[in-house]
């Protein structure tokens, strides 16, 4: 989040190009960046632990240009996301 706000720079060389692309995309929208503690961002935390070092990108099965998570992992992510959304909308 701090990188997207422009407070910190992206140090990882392989992420710098992606960061530029993300900043360009978000410039097209009205964005508000908010910190969500890890305990209320479990879906993202879970996905980050699944991400392999080889750069594979996982997505929902409806998005055909990425590898698809195995069904049991997709269900777990959807459960975690529902809990994260529940917390976000209740605060």
From TrEMBL:
It comes from the Eukaryota. This is RNase H type-1 domain-containing protein. Pfam families: RVT_3. GO terms for molecular function: nucleic acid binding; RNA-DNA hybrid ribonuclease activity. Signal peptide: none annotated. Residues 2-50 form the RNase H type-1 domain. Transmembrane segments: none annotated.
């Amino acid at each position: 989040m701090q990188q997207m706000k422009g407070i910190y720079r992206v140090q990882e060389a392989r992420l710098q190009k992606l960061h530029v692309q993300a900043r360009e995309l978000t410039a097209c929208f009205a964005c508000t960046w908010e910190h969500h503690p890890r305990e209320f961002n479990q879906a993202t935390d879970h996905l980050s632990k699944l991400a392999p070092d080889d750069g594979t990108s996982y997505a929902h099965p409806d998005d055909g240009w990425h590898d698809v998570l195995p069904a049991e992992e997709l269900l777990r992510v959807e459960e975690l996301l529902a809990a994260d959304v529940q917390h976000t909308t209740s605060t």
